[in-house]
């Protein structure tokens, strides 16, 4: 998977900046525990931390071409790359026929040779998850490329004479040119609203390269362009053909994403998505005469004392075991308790992995602990993220109120269940940062991007709205989940692969009509039918259940202690903006029972933002009441 970083500066000699580049590179040690490398040139420096997955012996980076550049004393191009290219073998064969010669078996060398052959067009040929940096010595130009769905992150910070970049903000912040962390009102709004606006980062001056985009940095400045976007296309296949096509794609995608020279496992919740991936992976392993290992997460006493709710009607444990027996995997349940979830050291690690004030309550903490446990057995893990976004598994696709909402539908549903970002803050603060107008503007901007078919908006308003919901979910909601998966996995040195995010599957299913996606009356009916021969009937019929969350009143009381501290400590960054009466009302709820999951997310997100402001010494600017 790896971590990448670098610095381009056209008015200074970066060969004298070894110490700074080393510091930037070493911030990414968790992403790449197996090796490190730095390459320095006059106006460019590339750093790399490696998690060895393919060609363990020869895939070291930054990787240079044997062909010399201008003057003959420098390579033609140098690459620092993180991720996986799943079609690298086919590309390698094509490049060999075009006259290229290879000295490694790595996908890194394929990416480098592909750039030499096709220039920036090489990005359109890649199937995978990746963040790529290529320094072209002949052009004196840096190229940054991010995968289509944004599975792998990539941040950059323009400077007076170039730019800084890194897989995580901390790599950029390690450079003195970006060391003073500040956040404006708008940058706080994203965290308050539980949104990831494409390209926006809550550090002043820093940006995130958008999914499906590439960036060029040269002497003439910085340009960013899109090389991939979702398109609206007529769907002409009938239902049997559509089901068969989905299955054919999955039959190709899952084995393709299992290529690794290190141990690989599958995450298994017992839900439709992870079970489908697991079943296909188990078949691929069995064909090679091997057996797949699977892992799930649970909490002490959770299954025995389970309480159903609107988003978790059933516990995962029994279903995960049933699927494991059905497909013949070696299953491991990682059982966590309250003490581990509240461990201050674990929470500091999670915040440090995010670098940003986003969180999923106990979900990202438990995910980190699950990944850390899996890492003791494997380096790569398959998972089912993306299926709900691609096949329309969320409640907001069918809930009438969410469909009518003139905002992001998950915000509408969340507000009804206690996830109101305004509720813990003084009204003057919320009004001062124009949160309502910010939310409305983001929504209008997102809607304007949605591709539509000719006549769809007038002839079939319901299908048009479903397309809008699908686009919003794929471009504004999915990135949050992919962020969580990437940050928690990389903090553990575990590479997560997400077969449902293969762009071919996403492009095809995006244009399948809603009536076909739900032809049986159940959510994700199309996927259920495509996997009908793979799974037990109980799993095929199981209603969607969200990722498990701890159900423990004592956990909630511990959270409230942190919220009360943030509100009552005059030195706490958020203290001036929190409404003491609202905090006391939330505290009272834990005296007689548990918080709802959405209230818990609200409390934890507020505490996380306060911790983030304090830990990263973020200065608040353009915020009413801050001087």
Automatic annotation (TrEMBL):
<dbReference type="InterPro" id="IPR033738">
    <property type="entry name" value="AsnB_N"/>
</dbReference>
<dbReference type="InterPro" id="IPR006426">
    <property type="entry name" value="Asn_synth_AEB"/>
</dbReference>
<keyword id="KW-0315">Glutamine amidotransferase</keyword>
<keyword id="KW-0061">Asparagine biosynthesis</keyword>
<dbReference type="InterPro" id="IPR051786">
    <property type="entry name" value="ASN_synthetase/amidase"/>
</dbReference>
<comment type="pathway">
    <text>Amino-acid biosynthesis; L-asparagine biosynthesis; L-asparagine from L-aspartate (L-Gln route): step 1/1.</text>
</comment>
<dbReference type="InterPro" id="IPR017932">
    <property type="entry name" value="GATase_2_dom"/>
</dbReference>
<keyword id="KW-0547">Nucleotide-binding</keyword>
<protein>
    <recommendedName>
        <fullName>asparagine synthase (glutamine-hydrolyzing)</fullName>
        <ecNumber>6.3.5.4</ecNumber>
    </recommendedName>
</protein>
<keyword id="KW-0028">Amino-acid biosynthesis</keyword>
<dbReference type="Pfam" id="PF13537">
    <property type="entry name" value="GATase_7"/>
</dbReference>
<dbReference type="Pfam" id="PF00733">
    <property type="entry name" value="Asn_synthase"/>
</dbReference>
<dbReference type="InterPro" id="IPR014729">
    <property type="entry name" value="Rossmann-like_a/b/a_fold"/>
</dbReference>
<keyword id="KW-0067">ATP-binding</keyword>
<dbReference type="InterPro" id="IPR001962">
    <property type="entry name" value="Asn_synthase"/>
</dbReference>
<dbReference type="InterPro" id="IPR029055">
    <property type="entry name" value="Ntn_hydrolases_N"/>
</dbReference>
<feature type="domain" description="Glutamine amidotransferase type-2">
    <location>
        <begin position="2"/>
        <end position="220"/>
    </location>
</feature>
<comment type="similarity">
    <text>Belongs to the asparagine synthetase family.</text>
</comment>
């Amino acid at each position: 998977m790896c971590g990448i970083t670098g610095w381009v500066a056209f008015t200074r000699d970066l060969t004298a900046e070894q110490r700074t580049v080393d510091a930037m590179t070493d911030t990414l040690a968790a992403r790449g525990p197996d090796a490190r490398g730095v390459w320095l040139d006059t106006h460019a420096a590339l750093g790399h931390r490696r998690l060895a997955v393919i060609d363990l012996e020869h895939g070291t980076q930054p990787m240079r071409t044997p062909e010399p550049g201008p003057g003959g004393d420098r390579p033609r191009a140098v690459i620092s790359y993180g991720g996986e290219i799943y079609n690298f073998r086919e590309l390698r064969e094509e490049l060999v026929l075009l006259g290229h010669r290879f000295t490694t078996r790595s996908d890194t060398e394929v990416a480098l040779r592909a750039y030499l052959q096709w220039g920036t067009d090489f990005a359109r040929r890649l199937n995978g998850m990746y963040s790529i940096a290529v320094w072209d010595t002949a052009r004196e130009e840096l190229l940054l490329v991010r995968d289509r769905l944004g599975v792998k992150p990539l941040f950059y910070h323009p400077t007076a004479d170039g730019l800084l970049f890194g897989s995580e903000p901390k790599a950029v912040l390690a450079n003195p040119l970006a060391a003073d962390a500040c956040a404006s009102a708008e940058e706080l709004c994203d965290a308050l609203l539980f949104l990831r606006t494409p390209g926006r980062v809550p550090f002043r001056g820093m940006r995130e390269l958008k999914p499906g985009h590439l960036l060029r940095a040269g002497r003439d400045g910085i340009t960013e362009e899109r090389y991939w976007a979702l398109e609206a296309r007529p769907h002409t296949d009938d239902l049997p053909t559509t089901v068969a096509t989905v299955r054919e794609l999955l039959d190709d995608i899952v084995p393709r994403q299992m290529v690794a020279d290190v141990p690989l496992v599958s995450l298994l919740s017992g839900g439709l998505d992870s079970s489908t991936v697991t079943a296909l992976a188990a078949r691929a392993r069995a064909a090679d005469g091997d057996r797949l290992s699977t892992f799930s997460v649970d909490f002490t006493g959770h299954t025995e004392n389970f309480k159903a709710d609107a988003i978790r009607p059933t516990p995962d444990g029994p279903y995960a075991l049933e699927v494991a027996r059905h497909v013949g995997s070696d299953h491991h349940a990682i059982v966590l308790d309250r003490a581990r979830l509240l461990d201050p050291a674990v929470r500091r690690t999670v915040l440090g992995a995010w670098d940003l004030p986003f969180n999923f309550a106990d979900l990202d903490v438990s995910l980190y602990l699950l990944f850390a446990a899996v890492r003791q057995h494997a380096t790569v893990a398959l998972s089912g993220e993306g299926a709900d976004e691609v096949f329309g598994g969320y409640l907001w696709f069918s809930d009438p109120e969410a469909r009518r909402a003139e905002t992001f539908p998950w915000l509408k549903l969340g507000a009804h269940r206690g996830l109101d970002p305004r509720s813990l803050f003084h009204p003057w603060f919320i009004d001062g940062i124009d949160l309502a107008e910010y939310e409305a503007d983001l929504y209008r901007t997102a809607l304007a991007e949605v591709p539509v078919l000719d006549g769809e908006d007038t002839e079939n308003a319901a299908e048009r709205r479903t397309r809008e919901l699908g686009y919003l979910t794929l471009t504004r909601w999915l990135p949050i989940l992919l962020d969580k998966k990437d940050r928690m996995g990389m903090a553990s040195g575990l590479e997560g692969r997400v077969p449902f995010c293969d762009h071919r599957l996403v492009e095809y299913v995006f244009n399948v009509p809603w009536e076909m996606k739900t032809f049986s009356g159940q959510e994700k009916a199309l996927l259920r039918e495509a996997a009908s021969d793979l799974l037990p009937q109980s799993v095929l019929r199981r209603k969607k259940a969200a990722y498990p969350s701890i159900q423990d009143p004592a956990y909630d009381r511990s959270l409230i202690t942190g919220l009360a501290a943030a509100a009552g400590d005059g030195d706490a960054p958020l203290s001036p903006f929190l409404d003491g009466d609202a905090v006391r009302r939330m505290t009272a709820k834990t005296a007689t029972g548990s918080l709802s999951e959405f209230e818990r997310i609200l409390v934890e997100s507020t505490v996380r933002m306060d911790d983030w402001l304090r830990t990263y010494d973020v200065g608040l600017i353009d915020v009413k009441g801050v001087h």
